[in-house]
Write a structure and sequence with these properties.
The protein contains 25 helices and 123 strands. The strands form 35 sheets. Strands 43, 45, 46, 47, 48, 49, 50, 51, 53 and 55 form a ten-stranded mixed beta sheet that branches.
Length: 1918
């Protein structure tokens, strides 16, 4: 009870909070769910925090709300921003230069806060102007130069008109003086054209000057030059004219204009190619002019990029004017879009209008004043407003020259960026100095702005183990922060003790935990399945079931929270129907409710005075036929004590008092003049009514004439009339009683006609109106509640109907279009079956559903065949309907009846008739319920059983694409054919608003089936793009019969689709069956669902918002059998073709064997292999291939020995009859006689001719459609052979079709296929067509190859990647995204994106990175279809060796600036800076698919003795990887290794002595790539033990045939400190495996335990209750019908931290790992100089004896030089050694071996190369950036029980992309390992006892055991 009380109090408190603080506008303080005080204050402006310990409300909310909840004002913690004006000089209009006021200010803003700054600007009428003309001097511009020379005077006049203070300058350019831009022949270098100057790049001819005459004179001396290619080098000239400020003469306070005149396009970055030296280095953006003002670095530097020019021109406030001819106008018009301000003018061919172009451009620039905020930090947004406060568009500021212009800047600090708090951004993104200025100004307002992210002082002084937290947590700022294992507000609930108690999740009266709507977690916490719909402590509230008003949920003025409406600001009431404002209660006098009533819910509640009132409590005489009628009764009772109100109490209720007068006022002076007859005395009385205009007087003024006019009369004549009416009523009652006596069933109906007998029973709809938004609809029906009031005894059946589009007028165009009455349309029909619903009926594939579906179809088809044109029913399904009364457990049948449209009334009548009878033929139905619908109307019935007050009407919504944007349906209750209820609320309107969605999300199909063996269920989610852009949708899985963490791992999250993305896949991990579940005979079908919800950015959910996933434990076996029982051939047939067909489970490969019986000439057998999707294969027998003559005979063929996933069907045998000559079977002869076989269409041998005109067309990336003309000769069908181009035709797949077309599916994208077609008949296959070729369409590419990094300097990194293995088309671009992250892989800065449009450039150099920062990189590829998936990797810049191991220098590398602003982020630049300073380079680090940090492999494991950290360098070639991710206690361990194995020349052998014998092995490697990831959160560590065993059986004594071999490998996976999963690979066996046995015992002795696995398909067991830190010996063996096979052994230990007081009890939450035997730790190399390095390693974790020291050997890998040996004494935790006298670029092999009291331990080997820094004279191995390998060598003296062996690479060779890392295995006993050939490369990971091994081998072992030589050849994969 206490638990429930706690939940109730929490729920009520939360409800009160939400109802007060959750308006529709949103409360970001409360919604932030801040966990700490600082997070609360950082949530946004106005947020406050209450640190009071006793405070029970929400601690984080708006200040006024916190105060209202009862928190002390003195205790509330808030934050305030700051503002300071630093410099504000007023504008001086006398100064002839541009000015801005104010000039400098500083401010801090809270997240979400905004400030408005008033600014003034001044532009003089003719301010200072610098005009620099930059002209193309190529030969084609000769006439343009001549014209400019003649325009000297006009140019002077133009400049004077533009400014009173001007300067003018001139520069010229051509192009780089190198090939291919310039003709480098000496004669052409001297004079490229007649009368021309030598070629040059750029020259400043005339410095800016105000002497126009000097300018004109110097210009006359210039002559033209020339170059080769059309584009010019103008970008070089622009950059030099920009940065050479002093040489050009730019003035500080003037307007800078640069006129760029050319008729050609432009060269830009990466065009600077020299045929001898290749790509030029990147432009350094510096001034390089010699004494003659000529550009000197044109042949040494590349052209600048576009973003570089934009940045530099903006920095120097230079406005470009591009004056170009028509030839290049479009180029420069596009270029203009990138500049914040620029102009493009169209020149005539001879530039005769250049002055007009300059004048027009200058006027345009001055007329478009736009304001910019340069260098704005990312956390801020700016908006510029006009003086009136309106947002101004670009160029909209109308500031007249010579006048002061005013505007406002609105500066806002964003609260959230990319759904994360702005306070999580880097400091550079949160603060900075912005320059706010007009685009043409030099002067600017400097605003130093920063986001204020306040912190709370109380967080620095927590109270540890506070009493308020029950000692289980710290009290921080008044709130408990619980320790691990404790939950709830006051840390008084143990998570472990309450984990299994689901009763805590049940409120009183609840039957199911969490109301059946969620999962019950620890401490009674409910997590609702669909948080968008259900909420509350027990998920007991439905957000769609709050009160409605006017059909709208919460009146559309609030939201549904905890079962009640939470109203928006200014609204209140149960359904938010009441405005808080009383403005609607104002009366005509300005008062409220005329002073008589109360203003309640926005309406006046007026007193019941008998007078009809207006809504504001003023007399409403219009409603009462005037003032006289309204006041009549009150006048009677007060003046004469007569009338209806003559009782004193009634008379006192009158709202006014009368005044008796002798004379009444004139009628025109009063409101009304009244005269009535008093019924009591038949006298006339007269009075007047008047409303005074005085607002203080609320009553009416009524004056009554004191004297009546009384005539003499009587009313006795009414008595006979009354007596007659009473007699008539009595007669009616008597007739009704007589009628009901003879017809009992009509009694109730008759009584219902009498008001006294109805007893008030009414039925009707609950709501008046429903308003639905189509984008939120999840069903095509709406369950509309119908309610019944009054006594609930008895049954009422209500008929209803619905009409679509009732909002359309009769003359609406759509309404005038009458449908075709003969059109066949689907009629959805629903019936309630007289059968309870079961779970099996919800699964269409179940046997119960199939049987009932057949029964329904048979009976309904029989009934509806009376309808002319009706077809058979289809799409039958079954469901339940909630809120259906006492029969809600009965099954509802939904089906579809195709029939003519005009038959709708007949179908309704026939359905209603059969429902009333309770039978549809033999199908039993429940009367009182049915639905029949079309596409525009529907009718049906619902039933109220006794005691039922509400049922749902299942109303179809008729949602169609052609619907109006707002359509209305009308549902009407038409009749009550059974029952006495009367229809009350007869109509309900349903309005559906069609919101035009931008995207539609849907699953591709409503259901999927996956096998557990698949491991992952990949669920695709499709997006239909209507308006492209970014959008999101939420997905979440939910249990049905499958359970989370038992059958699968639940997933939820948001999918973000970028522009153009149409499909994403959500992977769901499928878990293997537990040991107990695997032994169950009757396994329940396991299912879960995945739901889509919350589509954003205007998207909606589509056809399938939910999909059901079925987990199949074992797939249904394929059934294979002969196609025919008999086959007939003749001795003249070249071959005998016998088809074998396959049914069921056709998506997996299957195999069956066949053999002949009773054949005279041959005894044949062989396998028949079916590939995925193949349904038919042929056995082909060539009789000529066997000795002896071909004679008539009878052959029997038999199928046997199917694969484990297949079985043999009923036609196990077939009889083949071979007849003499060309005799044909009887059926063929009969077909020939009837003319079905055309003799002319066959060849002389009887074979059909080939089909003609075959055509193939790709219809998709995996589909090809093949068409051909039908063959003559009446073929039975066609066979299509297709294969990949280049493969042999005999490997083709065959498709059998019956029509002259075929659809080839499941093909490879963007792949060439070849095809042939042949027809066949009973005689066999005909001739093939010629080969037809076709290529499938492109598909999105796969993920790029492995990422590789080269750290050039602490802030510069080069990243490279390989082309995707599956390009699926032509790669057109790559995209790189890099994001700074923290140690927990969470972003700590903004992700930056770079797109490379050149697919050949698979490298990128990133500058200005943050030093010592971890970055995550993601790369994806694009082709014509779209973007493929990302490949990601992580790099840590924090720890790099002080000297590089290698420096690969690659000149053509795209460069991006990590510090550039957003406006430049998408551009690529090129740089040579990094190539000039190799001394700053660092080791290239390679990261793989996981979270490797800086190429280092960092793992921390906690052991009983403390903590150990191991670093293993993973640097290798750019394509290798070694990575892992480990998170601390209670976390997860993830590892993945990808290895490419390359074959190499030759081989090698190794021999080890074993007990006097020799065991040798030879290994030959084949190319193989494998990717394996362990992501199970329960599997922390795995060890793989392969075919390297110390116990070699006596192979000479061969096993009996049929006895299984040894299981080929063991895999140990740690699930916990005491739990282990043991897996093995199925051994080879000639007969079927029947079972397995797993035996295990403690290595130091103990009882042998065993586990029997009776299901041969299972190859793993889970062993629990093991002892931590104890070694176990495991054995696995297999059994067939011939007996048990040999055992596979392995020794394993799970190491974990244990309780010191109980060594056998692991510490809760501590890490655990599998142990491996000892060796020195991984070798770490650090280069100290070009000829020396430091070698360090860690001591063995479990040495065999006490360590005395180490022996280190060093030798050159390929011979040469002496073997050097070093002795190192001591046993410290980490040992290092400095090795001098090495040689650069030579690979060395180092070995480290521990020397112990027991001898020498295993060796650790590493190979390293110190490469040169200058890149000169590199050896043949220079292609490797840095190579390191580790190899273990076991000494022969070692005889310990558990040892380590490594394969060794004796003759390694290097090649690009090759992987060289270590290989490690573990076995028990003495170890002998095969040598690896020189081509073998293997991969492994070693850290704190963890080994992952991946290898593919073809091994030949030759062993000498006991003096006997044994050879054994093995093939195995792991």
């Amino acid at each position: 009870m206490g638990r429930w009380t706690l939940h109730l109090s929490v729920g009520v408190g939360l409800l009160a909070v939400l109802l007060t603080c959750c308006p529709a506008e949103g409360n970001y303080c409360f919604a932030s769910r801040a966990k700490t005080c600082s997070e609360c204050l950082q949530a946004g402006q106005g947020c406050a925090y209450c640190p009071d310990e006793t405070f029970n409300g929400p601690r984080c909310d708006l200040y006024k709300n916190i105060l209202g909840y009862g928190c002390s004002a003195a205790a509330i913690i808030t934050a305030k921003s700051s503002y300071e004006m630093l410099k504000n000089q007023q504008i001086n209009m006398k100064i002839n230069q541009s000015q801005v006021s104010p000039q400098q200010m500083s401010m801090t803003l809270l997240p979400g806060e905004e400030k408005v700054v008033d600014m003034e600007v001044f532009a003089p009428t003719k301010g200072p102007l610098d005009l620099y003309i930059l002209m193309d001097f190529s030969n084609s511009m000769a006439d343009d130069l001549d014209n400019l020379k003649r325009m000297g005077n006009e140019l002077a006049t133009l400049v004077k008109d533009l400014s009173d203070d001007y300067t003018i300058g001139f520069g010229k350019f051509v192009d780089k003086v190198i090939e291919p831009q310039t003709d480098m022949r000496p004669s052409k270098l001297a004079k490229p054209w007649p009368d021309s100057d030598p070629p040059f790049s750029f020259q400043n001819v005339i410095k800016l000057t105000n002497d126009v005459n000097e300018f004109t004179t110097k210009l006359q001396n210039e002559i033209i030059s020339g170059n080769l290619d059309a584009p010019e080098g103008g970008f070089d000239a622009i950059l030099q004219a920009t940065v050479c400020t002093d040489r050009i003469g730019w003035r500080k306070h003037s307007t800078h204009l640069l006129v760029f005149s050319t008729e050609s396009a432009f060269h830009y970055e990466s065009d600077g190619a020299n045929v001898l030296s290749g790509i030029l280095p990147r432009n350094d953006e510096l001034c390089h002019l010699d004494a003659k003002d000529k550009y000197t670095e044109d042949v040494n530097q590349d052209y600048p990029s576009i973003p570089t020019l934009i940045r530099l021109l903006g920095k120097h406030n230079i406005i470009p004017i591009f004056a170009v001819t028509n030839h290049s106008y479009t180029y420069y018009k596009k270029l203009q879009e990138y500049f914040p301000i620029a102009e493009v003018g169209l020149l005539e061919e001879d530039s005769s209008n250049i002055l007009q172009v300059m004048k027009t451009a200058f006027e345009n620039i001055r007329s478009k004043m736009s304001i910019r905020a340069e260098e704005r930090p990312k956390a801020f947004e700016t908006q510029f407003l006009s003086a009136s406060g309106q947002v101004a568009q670009y160029g909209a500021f109308d500031v007249k020259p010579g006048a002061i212009g005013k505007f406002k800047m609105r500066l806002k600090a964003q609260r959230m960026i990319n759904q994360e708090s702005v306070c999580k951004l880097s400091p550079k993104e949160k603060e900075g100095t912005m320059r706010v200025k007009p685009s043409t100004f030099n002067a600017a307002l400097n605003v130093k702005a920063s986001v204020l992210c306040p912190t709370c002082d109380c967080e620095q002084t927590p109270i540890s183990k506070a009493d308020r937290c029950n000692g289980n947590g710290d009290l921080v700022c008044g709130k408990c922060q619980c320790y691990d294992g404790w939950l709830s507000t006051f840390c008084n609930c143990s998570a472990m003790a309450s984990a299994l108690d689901t009763n805590q999740c049940k409120a009183p009266g609840m039957a199911e935990p969490c109301s059946g709507r969620g999962d019950c977690l620890e401490c009674g916490t409910c997590v609702c399945y669909n948080p968008d719909q259900f909420e509350g402590p027990y998920c007991q509230y439905d957000k769609t079931q709050c009160q409605r008003y006017g059909g709208f949920l919460c009146n559309d003025r609030g939201s549904c929270v905890m079962g009640q409406c939470s109203c928006s600001l200014g609204w209140e009431g149960n359904s938010c129907e009441c405005p808080k404002s009383n403005q609607t209660c104002l009366d005509s006098k300005g008062g409220f409710c005329n002073g008589l009533g109360k203003c309640v819910c926005g309406r006046c509640e007026c007193p019941n005075s008998g007078i009809e009132m207006t809504p504001t409590c003023e007399p409403n005489f219009e409603r009462q036929l005037g003032a006289c009628e309204a006041t009549r009764t009150c006048v009677q009772c007060q003046a004469w004590k007569t009338g209806d109100r003559k009782d004193k109490e009634e008379c006192l209720k009158c709202p006014f008092k009368i005044t008796l007068v002798d004379k009444l006022k004139e009628p025109e002076e009063v409101l009304d003049s009244c005269s009535f007859r008093d019924e009591d005395d038949d006298c006339m009385y007269h009075y007047t009514v008047e409303v005074l205009k005085d607002s203080t007087v609320k009553d009416l003024q009524v004056e009554v004439l004191e004297k009546k006019d009384c005539p003499a009369a009587s009313l006795l004549w009414l008595l006979p009339l009354l007596l007659f009416l009473l007699l008539l009523l009595a007669l009616l009652l008597l007739c009704c009683w007589k009628y009901c006596a003879c017809c009992k069933t009509c009694c109730q109906s008759c009584l219902a006609l009498l008001p006294c007998c109805r007893r008030g029973r009414m039925v009707g709809f609950k709501e008046d109106e429903y308003l639905l938004r189509q984008s939120l609809l999840t069903s095509d029906h709406l369950d509309t509640p119908m309610v019944r009031t009054g006594p609930p005894k008895g049954t009422d059946v209500v008929l209803w109907k619905v009409a679509d589009n009732v909002h359309r007028a009769p003359n609406h165009p759509q309404a005038l279009m009458k449908p075709n009455p003969k059109e066949i349309i689907p009629f959805p029909v629903s019936l309630r079956l007289n059968r309870l619903f079961s779970e099996n009926l919800s699964r269409p594939e179940s046997r119960d559903a199939e049987q009932l579906r057949k029964e329904v179809a048979d009976n309904l088809n029989e009934v509806y065949k009376q309808i002319p044109g009706a077809q058979k029913v289809q799409k039958t399904s079954f469901r339940m309907q909630r809120n259906a009364g006492k029969r809600q457990d009965y099954a509802i049948m939904d089906t579809v009846l195709p029939a003519p449209r005009s038959s709708y009334p007949d179908i309704v009548k026939l359905t209603e008739k059969n429902v009333q009878s309770g039978n549809f033929q033999d199908l039993k139905v429940v009367p009182g319920y049915y639905t029949v619908a079309t596409d525009r109307e529907a009718a049906g019935a619902v039933e109220f059983q006794e005691g039922v007050e509400s049922v749902d009407v299942h109303v179809p919504l008729f949602v169609k694409d052609e619907d109006d944007d707002k359509k209305q349906l009308q549902v009407e209750a038409t009749d009550v054919p059974l029952g006495i209820a009367e229809i009350g609320k007869r109509l309900v309107n349903i309005t559906i608003i069609k919101e035009h969605a931008t995207n539609v999300f849907s699953f591709l199909q409503p259901a999927y089936t996956y096998s557990r063996s698949d491991g992952v269920a990949n669920i695709p989610i499709n997006r239909e793009i209507i308006e492209d852009g970014r959008t999101q949708v939420t997905y979440r899985t939910r249990d049905l019969t499958a359970k989370d963490k038992k059958d699968y791992v639940t997933v939820e999250g948001d999918l973000t689709y970028g522009p153009g993305e149409t499909q994403k896949t959500v992977p769901v991990r499928l878990l293997e069956l537990g040991e107990k579940d695997g032994l169950l005979e009757d396994k329940q079908v396991r299912q879960f669902v995945m739901d889509l919800s919350n589509p954003r950015q205007g998207s909606k959910l589509g056809r399938y918002p939910r999909t059901t996933v079925t987990i199949a434990d074992l797939p249904e076996p394929s059934v294979m059998m002969f196609k025919n029982r008999t086959q007939n051939f003749s001795t003249s047939d070249p071959t005998y073709t016998i088809p074998v067909v396959r049914t069921r489970n056709q998506d997996v490969p299957a195999t069956v064997k066949w053999r002949t019986k009773k054949a005279q000439r041959f005894d044949l057998s062989g396998p028949l292999k079916f590939g995925p999707g193949e349904t038919e294969k042929n056995i082909v027998i060539d009789p000529k291939a066997h000795p002896g003559p071909i004679q008539p005979e009878t052959i029997q063929l038999e199928l046997f020995d199917p694969s484990s996933n297949a079985s043999i069907g009923e036609r196990k045998n077939t009889l083949v009859t071979v007849t003499d000559g060309v005799s044909r079977p009887p059926e063929v002869a009969q077909m020939t006689q009837k003319g079905y076989v055309n003799q002319k269409a066959t060849s002389p041998g009887g074979r059909l001719l080939s089909p003609t005109n075959p055509k193939a067309k790709a219809t998709g990336p995996r589909n090809i459609r093949l068409n051909w003309d039908p063959s003559t000769g009446n073929p039975i069908g066609y066979k299509v052979k297709y294969w990949i181009y280049g493969d042999p035709e005999e490997d083709a797949q065959v498709l059998d079709v019956k029509t002259p077309q075929a659809e080839l599916t499941n093909l490879y994208p963007y792949c060439d296929y070849e095809m042939r077609v042949c027809a066949y008949n009973a005689l066999g296959d005909g001739y093939d067509t010629d080969m037809v070729a076709c290529q499938t369409m492109e598909d999105v590419p796969g993920e790029p190859g492995r990422l590789a990094f080269n750290v050039i300097s602490p802030t510069v990194t080069q990243i490279s990647w390989a082309e995707p293995a599956e390009t699926n088309g032509n790669i057109t671009a790559y995209e790189v995204i890099y994001t700074p992250i923290d140690d927990e892989m969470k972003p700590v800065g903004t992700a930056k994106k770079v797109q490379l449009d050149s697919p050949k450039k698979r490298m990128l150099l990133i500058e200005n990175l943050q030093s010592a920062q971890i970055y995550q990189y993601k790369v994806r590829a694009k082709n014509s279809v779209g973007w493929g998936p990302f490949r990601d990797a992580t790099l840590n810049l924090a720890s790099q060796p002080s000297r590089p191991m290698s420096i690969p220098i690659i000149p053509d590398v795209p460069i991006v600036d990590a510090e550039a602003g957003d406006e430049y982020d998408g551009y690529l630049m090129y740089s040579n800076d990094v190539l000039k300073s190799p001394a700053g380079s660092k080791t290239p680090s390679v990261s793989g698919d996981d979270y490797a940090m800086n190429g280092k492999w960092d793992q921390n494991f906690l052991f009983p003795g403390g903590s150990a950290t191991r670093n293993m360098s993973a640097s290798s070639s750019p394509m290798s990887t070694l990575s892992s991710n480990y998170r601390g206690a209670g976390g997860s361990f993830t590892t993945e290794t990808s290895t490419t194995y390359m074959s190499g020349p030759g081989g090698s052998r190794r021999q080890d002595m074993m007990g006097g014998g020799v065991h040798s092995s030879e290994v030959i490697m084949r190319k193989r790539s494998e990717n394996r990831g362990y992501a199970d959160e329960n599997i922390r560590d795995s060890i793989v033990m392969g075919d390297v065993s110390s116990k070699f059986p006596d192979l000479n004594a061969r096993l009996s045939p049929g006895v299984p071999d040894t299981p080929s490998r063991l895999v140990f996976s740690a699930l916990g400190p005491t739990a282990l999963k043991v897996s093995w690979q199925e051994p080879h066996c000639e007969k079927d495996i029947q079972s397995y046995r797993v035996l295990y015992q403690l290595l130091n002795g103990g009882e042998m335990q065993h586990v029997n696995v009776t299901n041969p398909a299972e190859n793993s067991v889970i062993i629990q209750d093991l002892l931590p830190n104890h070694s176990y010996l495991f054995k696995v063996k297999a059994q067939s019908q011939e007996g048990w096979g040999p055992e596979r052994e392995g020794v394993i230990t799970i190491e974990s931290a244990v309780d010191p007081k109980s060594p056998l009890s692991p510490m809760p939450g501590s890490p655990f790992t599998l142990s491996t035997p000892s060796a020195p730790g991984p070798l770490v190399f650090t280069a100290l100089s070009p000829d020396s390095l430091q070698l360090s390693w860690e001591k063995p974790r479990k040495p065999n004896g006490d360590i005395l020291g180490y022996v280190v050997t060093c030798e050159q890998l390929h011979g040469g030089g002496d073997v050097r040996s070093f002795q190192v004494n001591g046993d410290s935790a980490e040992t290092s050694l400095t090795v001098p006298n090495l040689t650069e670029n030579v690979p060395y092999k180092f070995k480290v071996q521990a020397r112990t009291t027991q001898g020498f331990g295993p060796e650790r080997e590493g190979i390293i190369t110190i490469e040169s820094q200058d890149g000169s004279a590199l050896s043949q191995y220079n292609s490797q950036s840095m190579t390191r390998r580790e190899v273990f060598q076991m000494p022969t003296e070692v005889s310990t029980r558990t040892n380590v062996s490594h394969t060794m690479v004796n003759e390694p060779f290097f090649s690009d992309g090759m992987m060289m890392t270590s290989q490690l295995t573990e076995s028990s006993g003495m170890v002998s390992s095969g040598m690896v050939s020189s081509g073998m490369v293997s991969s492994g990971m070693v850290s704190s006892g963890m080994v992952t091994r991946q290898v593919t081998k073809e091994v030949v072992q030759r062993s000498v055991v006991g003096g006997t030589t044994v050879t054994k050849k093995m093939f195995y994969e792991s």
